[in-house]
Design goal:
12 strands; 8-stranded mixed sheet; alpha/beta; binds zinc ion; two-stranded antiparallel ribbon
């Protein structure tokens, strides 16, 4: 029944044969032995926010900032969750690989931590794919899976190199492993001894001292498509688990992703959250079906089958206004999915290998399917923004 049987098998085999590579692979590291990464200077022209305007132009691709760095071999280990510094070191290393488009700083957080995007694939893409991890601080698996996907695309096993190269001839994949670096640090930053369930960013709403009972914005309620700060007519208060901010795009982290999406107009996006092993797609603000429901649903079923998740035809509680999927779809016609990974908030690192082997096939298949769109019947015009007038 699956017309993509051929590719299905190849991707599954590809993913499985990639596991030993993931568990112990050699890459190139900028700098040696834990030296501090240098970051490009933040522009002072626009105050604290280097990308204040939705129309700000971001160079594409950016100059790979690691190009002039000394390199030495490293090992990416799966025996622990990576710290933010390790994420940056690994991204630097991956950005020196031949198929990389380089590492871009797409913005910075409330606490001035940098938000990175790693590009992979075509320099003149017909279509682009976005992968986002760690929108919510405590959802660590999404960040790790983002890195694993990047590594698999850049360092496929020899017998699969031709297939990966083929998939990336006309497609670029941009991976933002840590959209919410402040939230990641607040949730423990990969240290299981410090792990907690903090999901929001580090926005302060009172005195200068962070107060988890009051502060933070839920970034996945801060996007503009049907953004609201009330639920059934009742105001969502500061301190709420899903506090959406004082206005849409009030937060530098969502501004960064917005500005990046305006430049790239992604055809497909996968936002990696935890947990529940569920795949969602728009709308989150209404129970009305999207105009492209059939295409959304069929691709969702394929991805879900390969990644062992269930497709949900509505967002959690049926109502998540201001989420990133609604924004990407509503603004750019992006086939925007959210995958909830794993069975809970991390309690050990032993699940990493299992999660990768289970989830990567669906992610890889989605990228491969985008690369083969003309043959697989998805109209290219779907990448244009959709008319929202028929939705409430
Ligand atoms: Zn989440």
């Amino acid at each position: 029944m699956m017309q993509h049987h051929h590719f299905y098998c190849k991707w599954v085999r590809f993913a499985w044969t990639s596991i030993p590579l993931l568990m112990l692979f050699t890459a190139l590291l900028a700098g040696c032995g834990g030296t501090t990464l240098q970051s490009p200077p933040v522009s002072q022209e626009a105050g604290n926010d280097p990308f204040p305007s939705p129309t700000a132009q971001i160079a594409k691709p950016d100059t790979p900032i690691a190009s002039s760095y000394a390199v030495s071999p490293i090992t990416i280990s799966l025996d622990h969750y990576h710290s933010l510094a390790e994420y940056e070191a690994i991204l630097q290393a991956l950005s020196t690989q031949p198929r990389s488009l380089g590492l871009q700083r797409i913005g910075s957080s409330i606490e001035q931590r940098l938000i990175w995007a790693l590009g992979i694939g075509s320099q003149t893409p017909q279509r682009e794919v976005l992968i986002v991890g760690l929108t919510h601080g405590c959802e660590w698996l999404g960040g790790e899976l983002s890195l694993a996907l990047a590594n698999t695309l850049l360092n496929p096993p020899p017998e699969e190199q031709e297939m990966v190269a083929e998939a990336l001839v006309e497609t670029a994949v941009w991976i933002v492993p840590v959209l919410n670096p402040d939230g990641y640090v607040l949730s423990g930053g990969g240290d299981l001894d410090l792990a907690n369930d903090w999901r929001k960013n580090a926005r302060l709403f009172g005195d200068p001292f962070f107060d988890p009972s009051r502060d933070g914005v839920d970034l996945n309620r801060n996007f503009s498509t049907h953004w609201t700060d009330s639920f059934d007519g009742i105001r969502i208060l500061v301190g709420d688990l899903n506090y959406p901010g004082t206005a849409s795009f009030s937060e530098p982290e969502t501004q960064a992703l917005r500005d990046f999406a305006i430049v790239h107009r992604f055809f497909l996006s996968l936002s990696l959250h935890s947990y529940g092993n569920v795949l969602y797609f728009p709308w989150g603000f209404t129970e009305e079906p999207v105009l492209d429901f059939n295409v959304f649903a069929s691709l969702a079923e394929e991805i879900a089958d390969l990644s062992n998740v269930e497709v949900s035809f509505e967002f959690p509680a049926g109502y998540t206004p201001g989420n990133s999927d609604d924004y990407f779809y509503g603004e750019f016609g992006t086939y925007a999915y959210t995958m909830e990974i794993g069975d809970g908030i991390p309690t050990s690192s032993e699940e990493l290998s299992a999660v990768f082997s289970e989830k990567l096939p669906g992610l890889l298949y989605a990228i491969e399917r985008v690369a083969r769109l003309p043959a697989l019947g998805i109209p290219l015009s779907s990448s244009n923004a959709h008319d929202l007038s028929s939705t409430p």
